Each structure stands twice: as C-alpha cells, then as structure tokens.
Amino acid sequence: MIQATGVSKRYGPTLAVDDLSFTVPPGMVTGFLGPNGSGKSTTMRLILGLDAPTAGAVTVNGRSYRDYRRPLYEVGALLDAKAFHGGRSAYHHLLALALSNGIGRSRVGEVLDLVGLSTVAHQRAGGFSLGMAQRLGIAAALLGDPPVLMFDEPVNGLDPEGVVWIRTLLRSLAAEGRTVFLSSHLMTEMALTADRLVVIGRGRLIAETTVAEFVDGGSGAYVLARSPQTGRLRELLEARGATVVPEAQDAVRITGVPSDDVGELAQRSGITLLELSAHRTSLEQRYLQLTDDCVDHRPAGRRPEVRP
Amino acid sequence: MSTTAADRPPLGVRDGFFADLLRSEFLKLRSVRSTYWTLLAAVASNVVLAVAAAAVIPGALSAEDKLTVDPIRLSLAGLHLSQVAVGVLGVLVIAGEYGTGMVRATFSAVPRRRTLLAAKALTFAAVAAAVGTASCFAAFFAFEAIVTDPALQTSIGDPGVLRAVAGGGVYLAVLGLLGLGLGAVLRSTAGAVAVLFGLLFVPAILLELLPSTWRTTVGPYLPMQAGSQIFIAQNRGPDELGAWAGLGVFALYAVVAVVAGLILIERRDA
After folding, report:
1. Residues of B engaging A, defined by a Cβ cutoff of 8 Å
2. Which residues, 6+ apart, have CB-to-CB distance to A248 below 8 Å?
3. What's residue B2's pLDDT?
4. Helices B102-109 and B113-146 meet at what angle, rounded to 10?
C-alpha cells in the first residue's frame, strides 16, 4: 500500500505537487492519471525517496522509502527506462542491484527470462532499444518479488507488441495480488488496465475513485434518437420529465429516461425510430472534462472539444 | 532504533547489509570498461616510465645530482601520469552514475545514500590501493633491474624504501578518493575532473608567481606537494613536510571532499 499525505514539492518557483493526498490500496491496479507536466513523475520520485517532499509525507507499506535497507523486497519501480550504465551488460546491471539487496544470482536469471532478455543478457545495455530498456527496467523492478510495483508511463514509446506485453504483464502481476501503481497520460490505457484511478492536474488531486465511478460521475449518460417525428417525440418525453435537446436535423439527445423507455414510448405512440442508442461518457471525455483547466501547454486557438 | 520487520531480510537471505553493498559496488566497478582502461593506463604509466627513467636518466645526471637525487622518486616517476588515470576513475565511480542515470536505479535499490557512498569509497579505495601498490612495486623492481649506476641502485630493505614504494600506491588511493569526493559533490564527470586536476597542478604554478616566502610556508601544504612526501625515501627538501605529515595533509583534502559528498548526497534530490 502506498499512502501520500498532504505531499507538496516545490522546484524553485514551480509547485510541481500541491498538497496531494491519496492511497494506493493493495491487490489492484491503480492508474495515476494526469496531463503531461501534471506532477505524476514527481509524485513517483517522492514515493521512491529520490526527491524529498517540501511538505507532507509518503509511505510505502507504512514506512518512508528512505528508511528501508532492502527496499527491492517492498517496492519495484520503473521510473526511467534509461536508468542504467550503458557500458554494463543487462546481467551485470541486474546483478549489481540484486547484490545490494542481498538477492541471489539465480533470481537475476529468472527475471531476465520473465522479460525475455535472456539472449541479450550479456550485451552492453547501451545498445538496447527503448523497448528492451523498458524490459530491463521491469526486470529490475521484479528482482525482489515485491508486493508493490510502480511504473511511470510504461508503454510510452513502445511498439504495439510491447504495449500488449506490458498490459498483459501488469494484469497478471495484479492478479497475483500485488499492488500496481501505474501512471499514464493516456486514458485509453487506463480504461484497459486500471481498477482504480488517481487523477491529478497541475499537481493537485482531481479525483480518486474507481474506473466505473469515474465514468458515471460525468454529466454522463444520454440517449440519442433519430426520427422523422422528433417534435412529437420531444413532447411525449418532456411530459415524462426527460430533457430533450436537438442534436441534428432529425436527431435529439435525451437525458433522464433510459433508452428502453424511449423505444417503448415510440412504439406505443407510432413514432418511427431510425436510430436509438444509449451513450456513456467515455473515460477519455470524462478525463478531458476534469483536467480541462489543468493543462499547462495547449496549442493556441485549439481547445479540445469536450462534449458531455 | 529498534529493528522492524522491513529491516530483516526475508528467509533464505543473508544478513550483512554493508557487506552486500560492498559486493554490489565491487561488481559495478568490475563490470564497466572504464575501470580496466584507467587502471591499465595507471599500471602502464608507472612501469613504462620507470623503465624509461632507468634507461635515460642516469646518463643525464651529473655526479653531484646523483648524490642529491632520490632514486625511489625516479623509479616512481610514472605516478605523475598514473595519478591522472586513478583520479579520473575516482570521479567516474560516482559522477558516472549521475551522468548515465544509473544513480536513480542505485538510489532506488539503496535509499541509504550515505552508507552507499561509504561502500563505494571503500571498494574503490581498496581496488586503487591494491592496483596502485602492485604497480609501484613493479615500477621499483623494473627500475632496479635496468639501472646499472651504483649511485642509483637501492634495495627494498634500505631505510624508507619499502614505505616509499608502498606509499606510491597509498598516494594513488587517496588521490582517487579526492576525485570520488569531488565527483559526489559536483555530480559531473567533466566538472570534477577539472577541479581535481586544477587542485593538483594549478597551485604549484601560481606559487611560482608569488613571493618566495610563500613557496616555503604555503607550498608544502599544497595537495600534490604534501601527498608526494610519502613516496620519497631520501634527500627530502628542507622545507618539505615529513612522509607521514605530508600524507596526513593530503588525506585531509580527500576527507574534506568525501565528507562534503556524504553530507550533500543525502540532502539533494537525485
């Protein structure tokens, strides 16, 4: 379990993380979501004790990371795929980390197998592609077989095969009962992998919730109906308390009544329906809504269209 | 502080936190090429220059020179060059981690940074002292094997000779630690190498421009001037510090740099 309590981090004039509190509960994948530059990586650096918080505290399994003597048994982390000496082989890189935590040589071979780097284990890691570097970082994270795993943008820059591999791996790690904390600025990635979400923007907490609640929390679900008789349909629906907004020439957007009821009502009233569909706010839309005010750099004159 | 569950290694894992760090740091040192290149350069400088000195210098010295020269200093002439290689390696051991990004993996695995830096310094110093001392002995015996002039021949059993030859290795190790300390403080290989060699070579040049009294009062305390006392066996200059006092002053420079590194490494963001 990871717990942040009122954590802030200031770099000179920039407040990268602002009074952030959240919990990453054990045994599930928690997505850490926010636009680029919203403080995700900084927060992860604070969790790992790489940077010291300006205020507040973060604990991993109840203790500050810097208090651990052998933290690889507690937390495995991939923050930066290129955090290795390019002149050292993958095997020696992992072995050096393993030895520092009293982890045996045989485990190095195991994690190399697990990430599929066994055949290149004795090559200089400096020649690795981004995908291979990412795998090496994941192998390092798995060395101590830790109950808590943390990955910062693990799919960034990977080819489709690599993306699928990481997704499958994360799922299986969570299925083993591990705590997985995973950051991304890509909503779609989160929708596929995460159970819970911690959403931040400009260093502040925006939402901490399950994926399902996150979607439902949007101004949400609506029904789209297309009919040559939209005027009459609208009258009938409004009489039942629904809100009906014209959507296009022959379509209306209905909220407050489920699509089944719309269908039955139309049938009973002899209204022809050309189309009837229920819509839910996608995670992507919901995310854009929430972080709309929190995006630091946006191309001038191009505001992303956010439709409820 | 009481021992909590997280401090104890899981079943089947050895205890001995510091020993694990030493093992890890020794592997790191062995598993990059720069270690071999710099140490090879150091050994080669010591031995090759000893051979060259033995072959060339006796013919160039006057009879009077031969009475005042220290043959050990001649046989260890290579130290002037090998110190550059060992100093660079000392810097690389820590600044290289910052330069490559390895330091983030290292600090994630070992969040107790002071203990880590201490293990690093100890491992490096042991390797530098071992290689340095071995190459100084090789240089000494190579010189003695080649030199034919009786005025320049010495035996390892002569007064001060053993201390001076072994001292060459100690000098290299202390100098390397000075580099490591500077590397930890500056976190940049180029910056730390520049400061290290500035510290070694520039003060002596500046001193030449200053009044001669400064040369005798301040001069002996300069890093290289103080440090070289340990590898002088005889005919020490009148204003120079003794072997051990000189080494002490030199070591003080290294201690200051390493302690500054130990303080800063804990406080700064990685």
Report:
1. 4, 6-7, 9-10, 13-17, 20-21, 23-25, 27-28, 31-34, 96-97, 100-112, 116, 267, 269-270
2. A226
3. 38
4. 120
Flag whether residue A136 sits within 8 Å of chain B, measured between CB atoms.
no
CB A21 within 8 A of CB A38: no
Q: Which two tokens stand for residue A238?
A: 């409004």
Helices (H), chain B: 17-30, 33-60, 63-68, 71-75, 79-100, 102-109, 113-146, 161-186, 189-209, 212-217, 223-227, 243-267
The Cα–Cα gap between B249 and B267 comes to 28
Strands of A55-60's sheet in order across: A14-24, A2-11, A55-60
Residue A208 neighbours by CB under 8 Å, 6+ apart: A22, A23, A196, A197, A198, A199
Question: What letter represents residue A283's amino acid?
Answer: L
| Helix or strand run (H / E) with residue A251 | strand A251-255
| C-beta separation of A255 from A218 below 8 A | no
Sign of CA dihedral A11, B183, B263, B219: negative
**How far is the CA of B188 from the CAs of A13, B96, B98, in angstroms?**
25, 8, 7
B62-106, pLDDT tens digit by residue? 888 888 888 898 999 999 999 999 999 999 999 999 999 999 999
Q: A100–B21: do the CB atoms touch at under 8 Å?
A: yes
- Smallest CA-to-CA distance from B265 within B30, B66, B88, B97 is with B97
B233 and B154 Cβ atoms separated by less than 8 Å:
yes
User: Could you give the percent of chain A with pLDDT greater than 70?
Assistant: 92
Q: Is the pTM of this model over 0.90?
A: no
pLDDT tens digits, residue range A256-282? 888 888 899 899 988 999 998 888 776
| Chain A CB contacts of B17 below 8 Å | 69-70, 102
Average pLDDT, chain A: 88
DSSP for residue B188 = -
What does residue B208 show for φ and ψ, rounded to 5 degrees?
Answer: -60, -25
Question: What is the DSSP track for A128-158?
Answer: --HHHHHHHHHHHHHTT--SEEEEESTTTT-
Query: What ipTM was estimated for this complex?
Result: 0.90
Residue A277 is inside which H or E element, if any? Answer: strand A275-279
Distance CA A25, CA A176 (A): 14
Which amino acid is it at A180? V
Q: Bridge partners of A24?
A: A2
List CB contacts of A223: < 8 A, sequence separation 6 or more. A253, A254, A255, A257, A258, A259, A262, A276, A277, A278, A279
Distance from the Cα of A305 to chain B's closest Cα (Å) equals 39
**Coil, strand or helix at B156:** coil
pLDDT one-digit tens code per residue, A149-170: 999 988 877 888 888 888 888 8
CB contact under 8 A, B110 and A84: no
Closest by Cα among A76, A78, A74, A50 to A63 = A74
Q: Which of B101, B110, B269 sits opposite A52 (nearest CB)?
A: B269
- Minimal CA–CA distance to B30: which of A143, A136, A91? A91
Determine the Cα angle at B163 with ends B162 and B164, to 5°: 90
User: Could you say which of A69, A80, A101 has the minimum Cβ distance to residue B101?
Assistant: A80
Chain A hits for B9, CB-CB cut-off 8 Å, are 70, 73, 102
